[in-house]
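User: structure tokens for this one?
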Amino acid sequence: MYPAELTTPMKNQLVESGFKSLETPEEVDAAINQDGTVLCVINSVCGCAAGTMRPGVILSTKHNKLPDNMVTVFAGVDGDAVSQARKYTLPYPPSSPSIALFKNGTLVHFIERHHIEGRSAEMIAENLAMAFDEYC
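Assistant:
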């Protein structure tokens, strides 16, 4: 587990942009299984999370169509919550960072780490905007 003084600013980037931080499996279940659309970001301390994933996700929140709810869990911090979120992203293997869009509890769009690495924040935001247009 990473120390809070390291991860809190990284977590706050998303929280300050309208994401709810989930820290327990029960919070994950309640968030993902609600009606409507839910964007769930599995956050990470890695460079691609800092360099493009978080900026891209934040940029996507400026799109004219958005999910009903936006939540985040933090790998290496909220272990049980991350494990629970990953159950919902099966059959994809565990991936940190990653971005999942759910509609009525069903995974409809998923961006794995290998789709984040080497992509710009703008490319990630554009990918999410297309998913928002289709599912939200």
